[in-house]
From TrEMBL:
The protein's Enzyme Commission number: 5.3.1.6
Source domain of life: Archaea
Name of the protein in its database record: Arsenate-mycothiol transferase ArsC2 protein
InterPro entries linked: Ptyr_pPase, Ptyr_pPase_sf
One of the protein's GO biological processes: response to arsenic-containing substance
Organism annotation: Marine Group I thaumarchaeote SCGC AAA799-D11
Phosphotyrosine protein phosphatase I domain ranges (all copies): 2-129
GO molecular function, one term: ribose-5-phosphate isomerase activity
Enzyme class: isomerase
Pfam families assigned to the protein according to its UniProt record, in alphabetical order: LMWPc
Lineage: Archaea, Nitrososphaerota, Marine Group I
Length: 132
C-alpha cells in the first residue's frame, strides 16, 4: 500500500475534502490521510455541508496533527496552500506538491463550493497521474 498525505494548517477544510475525494476515487492500493500543523478542534461546517451535496459524508472525519511518521511513510504529500506562512506544512515536508488552494474558512457557501470543485479536479488529476 502506498500512502498519500494531504496537508494544510488547520486540517478543517481543504485537506479534509481532498482526503474524502481521494478515498472515493483512488484505487484501493492507496491509503490516504490528511493532517494539519495546527489542527482546528472540528471540521468547517460549511465544508461538511458542501461535501454532503456531492454525496460524501464527512461527519466521521476529524482534524489531525501532522506527525513525522505521516510524513516519512507517505509516498506523495500534497500541501493545499498556505495563508499562514509560519505554520505552512511545506516548510516541514520535502518533495511536496503545492496546490495553492484558497482556505474555505469564513467564506460563503458558494465560494466553498468553488473550492470543493477545484479540489475535486486536482484530486482526479492526481489519481490519473498515479495510474500512469
Amino acid at each position: 500500500m502506498e500512502n498519500v498525505l494531504f496537508v494544510c494548517v488547520e486540517n478543517a477544510g481543504r485537506s479534509q475534502m481532498a482526503e474524502a475525494f481521494f478515498r472515493k476515487y483512488a484505487p484501493a492500493k492507496y491509503n490516504v490521510i490528511s493532517a494539519g500543523t495546527t489542527p482546528s478542534s472540528r471540521l468547517n461546517p460549511t465544508v461538511v455541508e458542501v461535501m454532503k451535496e456531492v454525496g460524501i459524508d464527512m461527519t466521521q472525519q476529524s482534524p489531525k496533527t501532522l506527525s513525522n511518521d505521516m510524513i516519512e511513510n507517505s509516498s506523495k504529500t500534497i500541501n493545499m496552500g498556505c495563508m499562514d506562512k509560519e505554520s505552512c506544512p511545506a516548510l516541514f515536508v520535502k518533495d511536496v506538491l503545492d496546490w495553492n488552494i484558497s482556505d474555505p474558512k469564513e467564506k460563503s457557501i458558494d465560494a466553498v463550493r468553488e473550492i470543493r470543485d477545484q479540489i475535486l479536479k486536482e484530486v482526479l488529476q492526481l489519481v490519473q497521474s498515479l495510474e500512469e
